[in-house]
Amino acid sequence: MGEPLQALDQVRMTAIDLALKFGPKVLVAIVILVMGYFAGQWAGRATIRMLARFQLEPPVRQLVERIVRIFVLALFGIVALQNLGVELLPLIAGLGVAGAGIALAMQGVLSNVAAGLTIIFTRPFRVGDYISIAKEEGEVLDISLFNTILGHPDLSRVVIPNRRIVGEILHNFGKIRQLALEVAVAQEADLAGALGAIDEALRANARVLRDPAHLVRVTQLADARVSILVGPWVNVPDYGPAIGEVNQAVLAGFRRRGIAIAPPQREVHTLPLGA
Q1: 176-257: same fold as 2-86?
Q2: What is the pTM of this model?
Q3: How many Cα atoms occupy the beta-carbon half-sphere of 148 within 13 Å?
Q4: pLDDT tens-digit profile of 7-43?
Q5: I need a surface site. Which of 143, 224, 250, 268 has the fewest CB within 10 A?
Q6: For residue 190, with 0-12 CB atoms within 10 Å meaning exposed, 13-18 middle and 19 or more buried, which class applies?
Q7: Which CATH number applies to 124-174?
């Protein structure tokens, strides 16, 4: 029994010596890290207030604020490590080797980050714009380092990795869109009355913008019909509802004026038997 008790006593004495030797340093390091956390939070808020004076996108402000917080916390972390007596040069070398391995294993994530930085600083689109990219379209709800979130017209959300955006053909509609409707009337119909009915329907619709002015013009003269392009401008959220409202209002205006919509024309060719 004497040897085990002696070993336990030796472990206890060693633990006490280590606690007396490193305990105060560990406590001071913890205090330094806590101070670094609050200093980083304060520096981040100060950065946000300073950047509010400039015309910067929210993702850019958030990125700069995070970089400042991480930088301040890293400085306090270095001070804490020096207080513990840790040699920083071997640690930095080890972190460099580990970082290279992590970078190879996370190439897809890093490519998203690089693409996100490109989007944030080149600003091909902004939050609130309506865009079409990578066979998807919708209103830009959020731009982060890793992905861009679009609000789809069916109220769903589309999350696109940033690497799928950079280098692709982007159609940015901005915050307004133009409807591209087509109305066909019979050739014998009152064309001036049809154009007037369309103009009246557009002016009466609250969703149709007054600036830019709406477009109404004859686009095609076929055998038995006259095609009219109807192109009003609306805000992005009003695009879907405005299509139905404008079509309904134009149809009602035509009926009040006795203007007939041209029926579709089809040619049927008959061949004799045995041909």
Answers
A1: no
A2: 0.60
A3: 31
A4: 666 656 665 665 556 667 777 778 888 888 888 888 8
A5: 268
A6: middle
A7: 2.30.30.60
